[in-house]
Write a structure and sequence with these properties.
Blueprint: H1 2-12, H2 15-49, E1 56-59, E2 64-70, E3 75-79, E4 82-86, E5 91-95, H3 103-107
Antiparallel strand pairs: 1-2, 1-5, 2-3, 3-4
């Protein structure tokens, strides 16, 4: 019977390693999940704020076009079939001049 009480007293002393392990797990989750997500959100916000008229872009749905007008609540994209209005968040990437050079730049 005394051994049962002695084991119970010894179990209380092992609370510190459990707390350290929980802290390490939180730090691991922060560096593996939360921090990269925040970094990606920051890059996306910077990309959306740096959009300019005339940029060739692709939307998240895969539509290609050129930005013809930027407004507060979205952008107007000119495609081969006409002009469409999209939210800034719907733009996934920007095509550079290196990939699609303008014909006017080559003639100069």
């Amino acid at each position: 019977m005394i051994t049962i009480f002695l084991q119970a007293v010894g179990a209380e002393g092992s609370m510190m390693p459990t707390m350290i392990m929980m802290g390490l797990m939180f730090v691991g989750f922060y560096f593996l999940m939360i921090r990269p997500q925040m970094k990606k959100a920051k890059q996306e916000k910077n990309f959306q704020s740096e959009l300019k008229v005339g940029s060739r872009i692709v939307t998240t749905s895969g539509m290609h076009g050129r930005i013809s007008q930027i407004m507060e609540d979205g952008v107007i994209i000119e495609t081969l079939s006409g002009k469409l209005k999209f939210e800034k968040a719907a733009i996934s990437r920007d095509f550079t001049q290196q990939r699609f050079p303008d014909n006017s730049a080559e003639s100069k």
